TrEMBL record:
<dbReference type="InterPro" id="IPR043132">
    <property type="entry name" value="BCAT-like_C"/>
</dbReference>
<dbReference type="Pfam" id="PF01063">
    <property type="entry name" value="Aminotran_4"/>
</dbReference>
<dbReference type="GO" id="GO:0008483">
    <property type="term" value="F:transaminase activity"/>
</dbReference>
<dbReference type="InterPro" id="IPR001544">
    <property type="entry name" value="Aminotrans_IV"/>
</dbReference>
<comment type="similarity">
    <text>Belongs to the class-IV pyridoxal-phosphate-dependent aminotransferase family.</text>
</comment>
<keyword id="KW-0808">Transferase</keyword>
<dbReference type="InterPro" id="IPR043131">
    <property type="entry name" value="BCAT-like_N"/>
</dbReference>
<dbReference type="GO" id="GO:0046394">
    <property type="term" value="P:carboxylic acid biosynthetic process"/>
</dbReference>
<protein>
    <submittedName>
        <fullName>Branched-chain amino acid aminotransferase</fullName>
    </submittedName>
</protein>
<keyword id="KW-0032">Aminotransferase</keyword>
<dbReference type="InterPro" id="IPR036038">
    <property type="entry name" value="Aminotransferase-like"/>
</dbReference>
<dbReference type="InterPro" id="IPR050571">
    <property type="entry name" value="Class-IV_PLP-Dep_Aminotrnsfr"/>
</dbReference>
Length: 256
């Protein structure tokens, strides 16, 4: 793991500054994919960080300052990296770069009993107050699954604890609309802009009745789901095609 604090490379994590904002979970973060020394979709990630900061009245560092810091940590890196950028409300900011561990195990999902309020001030914001998201992961893992699916107050599917959701039904790829309260994921944005993925609202039963289910995020990109509770999903030809095309799209463009 490589760490940068307020623009300076830190070799000893114990030198982190005291931060009441960190203790309160008052701040924002982005998780970004790095491939070798390249930052994937950096412009999109920073734009989302700016919008979230405006919503929560937080001042964030200049784009160039964060970018220079990330590039310092990526120097000499080979392979995929997980880049985490955290901007705290008190002005402190961090960048962490660590290798991405590959896994061939496909995700499996359960339905969460708790619901997401689509009108919450944190709706659509990647906040460091991440307890709600991690609750979904811990709940699912305690039952032998990998992640939990949240619905909103209208019983619409929103997202999992760690990713956006896409379903395939009758040849059409559909992801929950932003009005559901889901995070405006960067991979989600690119799939809507450049591929045949549309926004819509669907409930739990419609998710179970779909032909295939996928998760998308900046690190996993696009991944098929193996199981949703007791229902098994087999590989989809259309899904395999989309996954391959999107992976090629990412590798052919750095700023997308």
């Amino acid at each position: 793991m490589k760490l940068l604090v307020n623009g300076k490379v830190v070799t000893e994590p114990l030198t982190l500054p005291f931060s009441l904002s960190f203790i309160r979970g008052d701040g924002l973060f982005e998780t970004i994919l790095g491939i070798d020394e390249k930052i994937i979709a950096w412009q999109r990630h920073y734009e989302r960080l700016v919008k979230s900061a405006e919503k929560l009245l937080i001042t964030i560092p200049a784009k160039i300052d964060i970018e220079v810091g990330i590039n310092q940590l990526l120097k000499g890196v080979i392979g995929k990296s997980r880049i985490r950028v955290a901007a705290l409300a008190d002005g402190n900011w961090l960048v962490v770069v660590e290798p991405v561990e590959s896994s061939d195990k496909l995700p499996s999902l359960i339905k969460m009993n708790q619901v997401i309020n689509s009108n919450s001030p944190l709706s659509g914001v990647k906040s460091i107050s991440y307890g709600q998201s991690m609750l979904a992961v811990r709940t699912a893992q305690s039952r032998g699954y990998s992640d939990g699916v949240y619905l909103n107050e209208n019983a619409d599917v929103v997202e999992t604890g760690s990713a956006n959701i896409i379903i395939l039904k009758d040849g059409k790829f559909i992801t929950p609309a932003l009005e559901s309260g889901c995070l405006p994921g960067i991979t989600r944005q690119m799939l809507i802009k450049d591929f045949a993925v549309t926004e819509g609202l669907f409930n739990w039963d419609q998710l179970l009745e779909s032909d295939a289910v996928f998760l998308c995020s900046s690190i996993r990109l696009l991944t098929p789901v193996a199981k949703v509770e007791d229902k098994l999903f087999e590989s989809s030809e259309l899904g395999v095609k989309l996954i391959g095309e999107f992976d090629q799209h990412i590798r052919s463009k750095i700023e997308v």
